Amino acid sequence: MRTNATGTYRFVLILGAKVNGIRPSRALQHRIDVAASYAKAHPHVELIATGGQGPDEGMAEARVIKRELMAQGIDATRIHVEETSTSTIENFQQSRSYWHGERGVTIVTNDFHVPRARLIAKLYFQLESDALYAPTPPLAKGKYMIREVLAYVKLLAMYLKN
Q1: CA distance 146 to 130
Q2: How far is CA 36 from CA 15, 31, 45, 65, 154, in A?
Q3: N or C: which end of the chain has fewer CB within 10 A?
Q4: Phi and psi (nearest 5°) for 8?
Q5: Using only C-alpha atoms, what is the Rg of the chain?
Q6: Taking the model in full, what pTM does it have?
Q7: What gap in Å lies between CA 63 and CA 86, rounded to an integer?
C-alpha cells in the first residue's frame, strides 16, 4: 500500500545511496530533493541522513546528504547524521538513537525501494511508517529492480533464521 507522508512523524529517515566521488548519484539526489521539499513544508520534522562511505566513494553518503540539504536551505540543526551503515537494516539500527521511543518514522528512498524499507521498519523495529517516494532514474530502474528482488530473498532468509 502506498502511504505518502503527511507530516505525521517527527523523524524523517533519508536512506543513503551511491555517491560518485563527493557528489550524490542521481538516485541519491532525488532522495535529497524530495526530503528538502518535505522539510520546507513541514518545519517541525527532523531529518536523519544515513549511509556510510563505501570503498569507491569519496565521502560518506550521510555527509553528502547533509551538505546537499543545507545547500537547499535546510538548517543544520534539523539534520542528524548516521555515517556508519552499509545496508537498509543498518540505516535503521545505526540511527535508532535519534528516533528511539517514536511510534513511527517517515522513510525517504526511491520508489522501487519503499516497500522493502517499510517492511524492515515494521518487522525488525516495530515502527509504523509512511514514505516519500523519490523517482528512480529510468536508465537504472532495471538494475535496481533485479537487485531489489535479491534483497527481498536475503531479507526473508534473515527473518526466517531469527
Answers
A1: 24
A2: 14, 9, 11, 10, 31
A3: N
A4: -65, -45
A5: 15
A6: 0.86
A7: 14
Distance CA 70, CA 28 (A): 15
**Residue 47, strand partner residues:** 12, 79
Instruction: Copy the grid coordinates of residue 11.
Output: 523523524
User: What residue type is 40 in one-letter code?
Assistant: K
Residue 46, amino acid:
E
pLDDT tens by residue, 70-107: 999 999 999 999 999 999 999 999 999 999 999 999 99
Q: Name the band, by pLDDT with cuts 50, 70 and 90, for residue 136.
A: confident
Name residue, grid cell 529492480.
145
